[in-house]
Every structure is written in structure tokens, then in C-alpha cells.
Design brief:
36% helix, alpha/beta, three-stranded mixed beta sheet, 2 domains
């Protein structure tokens, strides 16, 4: 597969994220999240990013061994770089250091002359898609359950300190209990998604042993290299 590598040089941290259940990972294959910056006047039109007003974007094509077979089906890959300048409403706080999927695959400066990207088997791309899907859902669910848990604690505190009528206090506690129940169910779903993520990661490592390229940025030390996983063909 040929790749279209887009480098985003921006102020805001709009990196799309995955979760392994133990750490966060930048999803370089996802469309970037939008930021709230208005289009900066000093960015030339050909460098302007359609997703971020504070961003200068450049695109480079990395060709595979058979680019004619790809047609218009090149893979979009996004790389994120924090600029030293700041935008209105952005204090320039340094981004948190996060691993990124395949971050080592596309060095700055473009494709080396005379080189081509190797062929990627469909089963490898499918395993990577499964990993990304589980990681994306897990990150979203973690954020939601965190908000639900905070709301449940706030309601319980209000009920404990409130001078409302017994009926009003009962309403507070009922809603807090409902939220706690939702958090509990969310925790169960999180465990399922962690298993799905780890299963896909093991599939990718099995494929690597069979000769496929290595998918980097997966923080293997946070989940261990388990035994080879039967492939979901």
C-alpha cells in the first residue's frame, strides 16, 4: 500500500487517541480531532490544514513496491508536531509524551530515494484495524465512565451535605446509585475491550514472526508478549 503522510505542525493538542487499558497511544491512522482555533492569518493557503486553524500541514507520498495497483486507495497517515508559537487561547503547555502507532516508520524528510514500502498482507491490515477499533472504543468508554463516576460522587456529596427534604435526598441518592451502576457495567465492558486489544496485538506479533512488518508504538511492555494468538481470518 502507498501512504499519504500528513505532518501537522500545530499549537493545540488534537491528537486522536487509543487506549490499551494501561496507556494511551496516538492513533496515527485516524482523522485528527478538530481544534477551536480560528484560521491563523499568517498561514499560507497551500499550508493551511482543513482540521485546525493553528496548523501548518504538509503532505508527502510514500510509494509501495507496486504503486499502480493502489490507484486512489493510499493509506492516510498523520504525524503531529507541536510548534513553538502559541495561538490565542493556547498557553503553549507542552504536550504529554505519548507513543504513536508506527511512529518510527516515516522519518521526517520523506521517502529515501530508490526505496519502496513493502507489501502488506490484508490479514495484517485487518488485525491492525481490529486493534484500533478496540483501542478507540476503550478510550471513549474510559472518558465516559470517568465522567459518570465524578457525577456520582458529586451527587452523593450533595445528598450528604444537603438540607433538602427527605424526598429530595432520596432523589439525589437514587440518581447517584444509578450512575454507580452504569460505571460498574462500563468497567465490565472495559475489561472486554482490553482483551480485544491484547488479542489483536498478539495477532500482529504472530504475523511479524511470520514475516510481516512490525507495528511499532504498541507499548508491549504494558501487556507482555503473550503466546502466539490464533489468527482471526
Amino acid at each position: 500500500m502507498c501512504y499519504q503522510v500528513v505532518s501537522h505542525m500545530m499549537c493545540c493538542d488534537a491528537r486522536p487517541l487509543l487506549s490499551s487499558g494501561r496507556s494511551r497511544i496516538v492513533d496515527t491512522y485516524a482523522q485528527p480531532r478538530r481544534c477551536g482555533c480560528a484560521p491563523a492569518a499568517d498561514i499560507k493557503g497551500w499550508l493551511r490544514c482543513e482540521h485546525h486553524g493553528c496548523c501548518r500541514a504538509s503532505t508527502r507520498t510514500h510509494l509501495c513496491v507496486d504503486p499502480d495497483s493502489c490507484g486512489d486507495d493510499s493509506v492516510a497517515f498523520h504525524r503531529y508536531l507541536q510548534t513553538t508559537t502559541t495561538a490565542k487561547g493556547n498557553d503553549g503547555t507542552a504536550w504529554s509524551a505519548l507513543a504513536a502507532l508506527d511512529q518510527e516508520r516515516f522519518p521526517c524528510g520523506g521517502q529515501a530515494p530508490g526505496t519502496r514500502l513493502r507489501f502488506e498482507a490484508p490479514v495484517m491490515r485487518q488485525a491492525l484495524d481490529r486493534l484500533r477499533r478496540a483501542g478507540r472504543q476503550l478510550h471513549e468508554l474510559e472518558a465516559m465512565t470517568e465522567r459518570w463516576a465524578a457525577d456520582a460522587r458529586r451527587l452523593q456529596q450533595q445528598a450528604d451535605s444537603s438540607s433538602s427534604s427527605p424526598a429530595g435526598l432520596a432523589d439525589f441518592r437514587c440518581v447517584a446509585k444509578l450512575l454507580q451502576s452504569i460505571v460498574g457495567r462500563g468497567a465490565g465492558r472495559q475489561r472486554e475491550l482490553v482483551d480485544d486489544f491484547d488479542r489483536a496485538r498478539r495477532e500482529l506479533r504472530t504475523l511479524e514472526r511470520w514475516g510481516e512488518r512490525r507495528v511499532t508504538g504498541l507499548n508491549d511492555d504494558d501487556g507482555g508478549e503473550a503466546t502466539p494468538e490464533p489468527l482471526a481470518l
